[in-house]
Design a protein that fits this description.
Number of strands: 11
Largest sheet: 9 strands, mixed
Strand content: 15-25%
Distance between the termini: 54 Å
CATH architecture of the largest domain: Ribbon
Strand order of the largest sheet: 4-3-5-6-11-7-8-9-10
Radius of gyration: 22 Å
Shape: globular
Structural class: alpha+beta
Number of domains: 2
CATH topology of the largest domain: Umud Fragment, subunit A
Order of helices and strands: HHHHHHEEEHEEEHEEEEEHH
Number of helices: 10
Helix content: 25-40%
Length: 279
């Protein structure tokens, strides 16, 4: 009874994650829970806990499932649409596109890598680009680190951005639009108030930056094309709380800490055994 009660209180996203797993088994896409767990880079016991209602699926579980099995992120997050991404006669036609994902705490490290010419895609996290954005030359997913940029963009939202070539900055940067600007020391999410032949003027709410930035001080300009937000999920699903969704992300961090602790314990035991064998 306890397991059933736990399953009844699981968040809707986890319930759909389980539904997808059962669908994959029914269609012979996976043979066992163990195979599925390993394919999405999680422990079989962790998956077993999810299936028994003892824990919720993490954001990492959700994203790996969409990447490995071509499952629609739109279905997993909202409950609408088909399991698989757009298909014709059962054959998927939507390519999987992973782009670099920058979290707010990585902005300065990213700017340094760009400044010194040692940027490597493989050193950064990736985000599976939503299928409706494939083909739009989007190259970065950027976690917004402020609530002051624009009224409809909140801290934690993920912006999907397209690079603007340097030769097009003067003609392509528009007033009132949101951009990610890479300077010598850090990346910043900004709203442009105006621009001229020498640089750009920022909206006055950008308190951590000067009101004017010269083009000479800019390394990159990324134009925000779309965004992913928790509020999108809440629009059609009031039963899903922001705290619930954010707890999924924090659980990933706690799992990583547990792995580090386990690794340190194993190394310590091995060292002790090596010392004992010397006597």
């Amino acid at each position: 009874m306890t397991g059933r009660a736990n399953m009844d209180t699981q968040d809707p996203i986890t319930k759909r994650f389980i539904e997808v797993f059962e669908w994959l088994k029914a269609n012979n896409r996976v043979r066992s829970g163990r195979q599925f767990a390993l394919s999405i880079d999680t422990y079989p016991q962790s998956l077993n806990d999810i299936l028994k209602g003892r824990r919720d699926a993490t954001l990492q579980n959700i994203q790996k499932t969409t990447e490995v099995y071509n499952i629609s992120s739109h279905f997993l997050l909202t409950g609408h649409g088909a399991f698989e991404r757009s298909d014709i006669n059962g054959i998927s036609t939507s390519p999987k596109v992973n782009i670099t994902y920058l979290q707010a705490h990585e902005f300065c490290g990213y700017a340094s890598a760009r400044k010194h010419g040692n940027f490597d895609d493989h050193q950064w996290n990736v985000w599976a680009l939503p299928e409706e954005l494939v083909g739009q030359s989007i190259g970065l997913a950027i976690q917004c680190n402020t609530d002051t940029v624009c009224s409809d963009i909140s801290k934690g939202d993920v912006l999907f951005a397209r690079s603007i070539p340097k030769e097009s900055w003067k003609s392509s940067i528009s007033s009132k639009r949101v951009y990610a600007i890479t300077l010598q020391d850090c990346m910043h999410i900004v709203r442009v108030n105006n621009n001229d032949s020498d640089g750009i003027y920022l909206h006055t709410d950008e308190r951590d930056l000067p009101s004017f930035i010269s083009y000479e001080d800019i390394l990159e300009v990324w134009s925000s094309i779309s965004k992913w937000s928790y509020s999108v999920l809440l629009k059609d699903q009031p039963e899903v709380s922001i705290n619930k969704l954010q707890s999924l992300e924090s659980s990933i961090q706690s799992q990583n800490k547990s792995i580090v602790t386990l690794t340190e314990t194993v190394q310590r035991l091995m060292t002790q055994q090596e010392l004992q064998s010397q006597f």
